[in-house]
Amino acid sequence: MNEQREHLGSEPLALAEGYIFDPLSYEIREGFRTKVRLTPLESRALAALVCHPDEVVTYDEIVQSLYPGIRSPESQFIRLSTQKVIGRVRKKLNRVSPDLVAKLETFPESGYRWTVNILPLEFSE
C-alpha cells in the first residue's frame, strides 16, 4: 500500500482555482471541504493526468498507472476496465464542477490530457 501511495505522490495537487486533489486521501476538496471521494484506481488515473498537465498521457501510461507491471495492456478486459475508470473520474469531476470535467480531454486511439488554462497577464501602462 505504501508503494502505491508513493506512486501517487504525497503532495496535494491543484486541479483548478479553489479545487485540490489529495492523492493520499483520494479526495477532491474545495478549500478544506471534501467535495468527492475517489477510489484508489480513480485516484491513480487522475494523478497520472494531473501530474502531466497539457501533455497527452498515452493509454499505455494510464494502464501502467492503474495496473503496475501488467503484461498485456492491449487486452479487451484491460481496455474496458481503463475506460470505465476514466468514465467514473469524469462523473465525479462533473459532480464537483462542470469546469473540472471539461479539463479532461480524450484523444481517441492515443490517450487523455489534463488541460491547464493559463490566463494571460494584463499589464497596465
Question: What's this entry about, in short?
Answer:
This protein is α+β, with helices and mostly antiparallel strands and 125 residues long. It contains 5 helices and 7 strands, in the order αββββαβαααββ. The chain is globular, with a radius of gyration of 15 Å.
User: Unreliable stretches, pLDDT < 50, 5 or more residues?
Assistant: 1-7, 118-123
Give the N-to-C terminal Cα separation.
55 Å
Quantity of strands, as a count: 7
Counting helices, strands and paired strands, the structural category is alpha+beta
CATH superfamily: Winged helix-like DNA-binding domain superfamily/Winged helix DNA-binding domain
What does this protein structure show overall?
The protein has 125 residues and is an alpha+beta fold. The protein has one domain: Winged helix-like DNA-binding domain superfamily/Winged helix DNA-binding domain (Arc Repressor Mutant, subunit A). It has helices at residues 2-8, 40-50, 59-66, 76-96, 98-101, and strands spanning 13-16, 19-22, 27-30, 33-37, 56-58, 104-107, 111-114. A hairpin with a 2-residue loop joins strand 1 and strand 2 (19-22). The radius of gyration is 15 Å and the shape is globular. It starts with a helix and ends in an 11-residue tail after the last strand. The model is unreliable at 1-7 and 118-123 (pLDDT under 50).
